[in-house]
Amino acid sequence: MKYGAYHCELKINNNDEIKIIEFSNRMGSSFESSITRATGNNFADLYVRSMLDKRVEVKENKNKFLLEKYFKNIDELNTWEEYLRKKNIAYSSKKQINRGQIAVIKIWHNDESIVEMITKKFGIE
User: Fold this and answer.
1) If you count Cβ atoms within 10 Å of the first and of the last residue's Cβ in the chain, which end, N or C, has fewer?
2) Distance CA 79, CA 43 (A)
3) Tens of pLDDT along 74-88?
4) Predicted structure pTM score
């Protein structure tokens, strides 16, 4: 595959050998909807058009920012949610047990400084 989205899952066993679980020309998890919402471009449409060798036009949308964080610890998620509520920052979160992850939080914002403030607060590079 030369261009496009892909999903890859690898596992390292006890002998430090890398095993391929899955490799496919698709996006994994909820990234498709996240990219669509964050960029204003319909990711599924762009992806299908690119696979069919059709012209793809991407709208530039520099004013939207997405922060997506996965958690394995419910206390960490609760800390984030409490902080975001205090700062009155809109977010969505989903709690589920899926491959060791228990939750995801997504923050979409038009102001880059808000996203920077959150990443600094929680030490994200």
Assistant:
1) C
2) 31
3) 888 899 999 999 999
4) 0.58
